[in-house]
Write a structure and sequence with these properties.
The chain is 37% helix and 18% strand. The strands form six sheets. The protein has an eight-stranded mixed sheet with strand order 5-6-4-3-7-9-10-8, sandwiched between helices. It contains 23 helices and 26 strands. The protein has three domains: 254 residues, 3-Layer(aba) Sandwich (Carbamate kinase); 210 residues, 3-Layer(aba) Sandwich (Aldehyde Dehydrogenase, Chain A, domain 1); 154 residues, Aldehyde Dehydrogenase, Chain A, domain 2, CATH 3.40.309.10. The protein is globular and about 100 Å long. It has 758 residues and is an alpha/beta fold. Its EC number is 1.2.1.41, 2.7.2.11. It holds the Pfam family Aldedh.
Length: 758
């Protein structure tokens, strides 16, 4: 805790030797000293007369938050001219109205015109009001602000430079936010563009160059330049092919076309880029971003400091491989080529991958051993996750068998006709299956997921981006290498891409122009985070696996303990493991109930009592904190119900629509349960663990979906396909089918072609 003026605030550990800029966005959270440059378009209203007060208040709030974390914040601001322009316009209008009222009468007021206002006069009139506004806003957060006005000459005079440097350092030491602006009341006309030729010289002719000069002089860690565009584009923003550049490297400016300047202000994007590169050479990291967009301006500064993918980040370090955007484009192009292959060719790729899993077994297990050793040494994985991370010979053999099932069943997946209709004579319509496009699969601690998902994507002709957990990095690397080796036999290696860059999952979820479907495989927290972060991209999956087993009064003694043991104890970390056991009330204090409890104790399952169950017992186990809990371990909840109807109601209220089971010999009761439970998988006298793509005969699964559209339950090849319509005509036009036209609609259903079942 640091204190200044008796105001405590939390500090974060921030330390870095200045001299070299940050190489990656993820490092920006370590920035200690930060300059925020507010462009004229950010500070002013759309009519250019007055300030955008709501936007400015949001910026002040973010700067205050970072300042109170122990960072040293400085603001380089525009806005004095706009604020002064507003004040002078008001004064002129008031003056004119008085004069005209005295000399011309009220009828002439509407003809009043405002003369062109000189910028220096506007700046002189606006500086004090702008600073007063900043001071009032920062006071709300118990932060003091101080104004500093500079000109280009101040940086050329060595004594003035030292004085400025000393003043700024003293203000920062006292936890005061310096607000710096060019003294536009006395600034000379803009100079020709003769600066930026070397590291040591940059003319202060606008606030972009001022911010860059100040950032280098003060050895700041980060310069944030806020403007009215999202960042730097590879062509003028608004043009059809314009793409936002995520990371900009020195030397790339030759390939960029600059557009016009913003609606207000001295500098355009070219000036910002030149200033940013100059600051980068001086050891300061730079991000150019949009400070005017209503959806992001409220958190744009804090998002940048947290390392999120906002705007354009300037870096001197080029990554060794392609960017994730380039990988997405490669996956899109590769996926289209993959979809165009013959079914036999796609099957051949999958068979080859299955062979490689067994042929290269030793190399795979060696890489997996490295992951396990690193995880155990760091102690960052719980035992259930370590089990998921572990590969074995039997797991690899099972994987290979599953992949061969996928290959055998995928012969007519893509391009299969599912509906044929004769619209009219010589006008036939077909609905055929096609790939979804590019899939993003994010998985934790499950290296066996990679070949499974890859095989399903290959069979369905989809491009694939894979983002695995860093705890399985070695295993994922070799499995991806083998996948690409298999794809190479038909020249489609690029269709499957493993994302190894430092992209955060949240940033990947924003790539809506590159990704068509996100499939998370991991903890319920991971799935929830992805569902929350995904912007405009559908997410297939389930956030929780709260699976129930209901034991009815007519249950078989022999079946009950076997099914419960398998559902809970066979693999407790799985999403299809039993979490809540529902017992019919009449079974309490019966030999069957005692057998269930004895079996759970032998298997070392910790029991939590539901509210009703606890009320029946004098000494009950620990009462459950929530009936909506996924334990993922040798723990479960036991609750009592009055019958099948209450069991169904309990499942609907507390379940996650994943997998639910009834154990009974009464067929009528079983059918009520099967028909009324609204879950993706509902079983009678079978373990919850059967809810699995491999066990369903799908070969493998990309996950289990609890959503109600497209795919539900274990998702295999069919869930990775969508459809398109093909219409074949012969000079047909809609006007021929009008009331007085020559043609009539037939809408006849046509037989489907024979499916290949070999």
């Amino acid at each position: 805790i640091r204190c200044w003026s008796n105001i405590p605030f939390i500090t974060v550990p921030l330390s870095r030797a200045h001299g070299k800029s940050f190489a990656h966005r993820s490092e920006l959270k370590h920035a200690k000293r930060i300059v925020v440059k507010l462009g004229s378009a950010v500070v002013t209203r759309g009519d250019e007369c007055g300030l955008a007060l709501g936007r400015l208040a949001s910026i002040v709030e973010q700067v205050s938050m970072l300042q109170n974390q122990g960072r040293e914040m400085m603001i380089v601001t525009s806005g004095a001219v706009a604020f002064g322009k507003q004040r002078l316009r008001h004064e002129i209008l008031l003056s004119q109205s008085v004069r005209q009222a005295l000399h011309s009468g009220q009828s002439q007021l509407k003809d009043m015109s405002i003369p062109v206002l000189e910028a220096r006069a506007c700046a002189a009139a606006g500086q004090s009001g702008l600073m007063a506004l900043y001071e009032a806003m920062f006071t709300q957060y118990s932060i003091c602000a101080a104004q500093i006005l500079v000109t280009n000459l101040d940086f050329h005079d060595e004594q003035k430079r030292r004085n400025l440097n000393g003043t700024l350092h003293e203000l920062l030491r006292m936890n005061i936010v310096p607000i710096i602006n060019t003294n536009d009341a006395v600034v000379p006309p803009p100079e020709p563009n003769s600066d930026l030729q070397g590291v040591n010289v940059i003319s202060v002719k606008d606030n972009d160059s001022l911010a860059a000069r100040l950032a280098v002089e003060m050895k700041t860690d980060l310069l944030i330049v806020l403007s009215d565009v999202e960042g730097l584009f590879d062509s003028p923003p608004g043009s059809d092919d314009a793409k936002l550049i995520d990371i900009f490297y020195p030397g790339d400016q030759q390939s960029v076309t600059f557009g016009t300047k913003s609606r207000v202000g001295m500098g355009g994007m070219e000036a910002k880029v030149k200033a940013a590169l100059w600051a980068l050479q001086g050891g300061t990291s730079v991000v150019i971003a949009n400070g005017t967009h209503p959806k992001i301006s409220g958190h744009v500064i804090t998002d940048i400091v947290e390392g999120k993918k906002v705007g354009t980040f300037f870096s001197e370090v080029k990554p060794a491989g392609p960017t994730v955007e380039q990988q997405g484009e490669m996956a899109r192009a590769g996926g289209r080529t993959l979809a165009a292959l013959q079914p036999e060719q796609r099957a051949e790729i999958i068979y080859r991958l299955a062979d490689l899993l067994t042929d290269q077994r030793e190399e795979i297990l060696l890489a997996n051993k490295k992951d396990l050793e690193e995880a155990e040494n760091k102690g960052r994985l719980a035992l259930p996750l370590l089990k998921r991370l572990s590969l074995s010979t039997s797991k690899l053999n099972s994987l290979a068998i599953g992949l061969r099932q996928i290959a055998a069943s995928s012969q007519d997946s893509v391009g299969r006709v599912i509906r044929r209709t004769r619209i009219a004579k010589d006008l036939d319509l077909e609905q055929v299956t096609v790939p979804i496009g590019v899939l993003l699969v994010i998985f934790e601690s499950r290296p066996d997921c990679l070949p499974q998902v890859s095989a399903l994507a290959i069979a369905s002709g989809n491009g694939l981006l894979l983002k695995g957990g860093k705890e399985a990095a070695h295993s994922n690397q070799i499995l991806h290498h083998l996948t690409q080796e298999a794809l190479s036999i038909h020249g489609v290696k690029d269709a499957m891409q493993l994302v190894n860059t430092r992209e955060e999952v949240e940033d990947l979820c924003r790539l809506d122009k590159l990704i068509d479907l996100i499939i998370p495989r991991g903890s319920s927290q991971l799935v929830r985070n992805i569902q929350k972060a995904a912007k405009g991209i559908p997410v297939m999956g389930h956030s929780e696996g709260i699976c129930h087993v209901y034991v009815d009064t007519d249950a078989s003694v022999e079946k009950v303990t076997r099914i419960i043991r398998d559902s809970k104890c066979e693999y407790p970390a799985a999403c299809n493991a039993l979490e809540t056991l529902l017992i019919h009330r009449d079974l309490l204090r019966t030999p069957l109930f005692d057998q269930i409890i004895d079996m759970l104790r032998v298997e070392q399952v910790k029991i939590h009592a539901g509210p009703k169950f606890a009320s029946y017992l004098t000494f009950s186990p620990s009462e459950v904190k929530s009936l909506r809990t996924e334990y993922g371990d040798l723990e479960c909840c036991i609750e009592v119900v009055d019958g099948v109807q209450e069991a169904v109601e309990h499942i609907h209220k507390y379940g996650s629509s994943h997998t639910d089971v009834i154990i009974t010999e009464n067929e009528k009761t079983a059918e009520i349960f099967l028909q009324h439970v609204d879950s993706a998988c509902v079983f009678w006298n079978a373990s919850t663990r059967f809810s699995d793509g491999y066990r369903f005969g799908l070969g493998a699964e990309v996950g289990i979906s609890t959503s109600r559209i497209h795919a539900r339950g274990p998702v295999g090849i069919e869930g990775l396909l969508t459809t398109k319509w093909l219409l074949r005509g012969n000079n047909h036009v809609v006007s021929d089918f009008s009331e007085h036209g020559s043609m009539k609609y037939l809408h006849e259903s046509l037989p489907l072609p024979q499916r290949n079942t070999n």
